[in-house]
Amino acid sequence: MASPATRPDVRYTYADYLTWPDNERWEIIEGVPYAMSPAPGRKHQAMNRVLLRTIANFLVETGGPCQVYTAPFDVRLPKENKAEKETDTVVQPDLVIICDKRKLDAQGCLGAPDMVIEIASPSTIRKDMVEKLKLYEKHKVKEYWLVLPGERIVSVYCLNEQNCYDKPEVYTADDQAPVKTLEGLMISLDEVFAAE
Q: Most buried pick, 41, 94, 148, 190, via CB within 10 A?
């Protein structure tokens, strides 16, 4: 298939997504395709590695049902009463934590993860701060971390009792940030931002 981004008048689905070339990375947000290139930079990947290692080590030490995955990993967010192939949202967050194993299948995750971490880059910052924030709230992702490397801050959004995100808790590189999805896990943000 030719580049789907050249057809802004068309709403794409997961069925379309499955036909796109394997050597290209795409996300679809409510039918609109977004190219996932260029690849993330080295600093982004180093920060992702520290977060993944910290979370994975905690999960090994504590046991339990939760699992952590890193991109590329498809998260399909279907609309209610729609067939899976009609799903018009497929994202590849930098990190996801999923505690309900019924949401996991051979293709990735079907339904909202418990937690999502996005490490913003200049090319993704608007999508991460606006579109994905709304998307994750709409699909009831319980905890959303938005990591801003340039500012050295992490904004943490958590669902309240009305299934809306409260104002974010903001942490700086000097802080230990609690992971509410994984009780007892604190992440040293100085280690994350110092990653090389």
A: 94
